[in-house]
UniProtKB/TrEMBL annotation:
Phylogenetic classification of the source organism: Eukaryota, Viridiplantae, Streptophyta, Embryophyta, Tracheophyta
Single GO cellular component term: cytoplasm
Native source organism of the sequence: Eucalyptus globulus
Composition bias, Basic residues: 1-11
Source domain of life: Eukaryota
Keywords: Cytoplasm, Nucleus
Location within or outside the cell: Cytoplasm; Nucleus
InterPro entries in alphabetical order: MBS1/2-like
Presence of the UniProt keyword Cytoplasm in the record: yes
Entry keyword annotation includes Nucleus: yes
Disordered: region residues: 1-50, 87-107
Biased composition (Basic and acidic residues): 32-47
Identification of the protein by name: Uncharacterized protein
């Protein structure tokens, strides 16, 4: 005998949200580390606004930010700070030993 509960069907919006969450890079893991360092595909925060230090992934986004936030200051691409050219990817520090399971480094 079946109950009167709501039938278990998924909406197209819910399925699309799950697919988006599963396929979009949210910045974690090895792919996120490579993306943050800017080695592959330029990374997310490539340019920094010299006025307010806000970051943007490309020149078009930075121009939109500049026109919206700093309308009285003329836009000059040469003043933008390229974070990938300035910040070198940090070398991983070697703490010695292999990484273990959580709680295995008991003292």
């Amino acid at each position: 005998m079946t109950g009167k509960a709501k039938p278990k069907k998924h909406t197209a919006k819910e399925i699309a949200a799950k697919v988006d969450a599963a396929t979009t890079n949210r910045g974690g893991g090895k792919a996120g580390k490579a993306d943050r360092s800017g080695i592959e595909k330029g990374g997310h925060a490539k340019y920094e606004c010299p006025n307010c230090k806000t970051t943007a992934p490309d020149l078009k986004s930075m121009q939109i930010h500049h026109d919206a936030r700093h309308p009285k200051i003329p836009y000059d691409e040469s003043k933008l700070i390229n974070l990938h050219a300035v910040l070198e990817p940090a070398e991983p520090s070697s703490k010695g030993g292999r990484p273990g399971v959580r709680g295995s480094h008991k003292k």
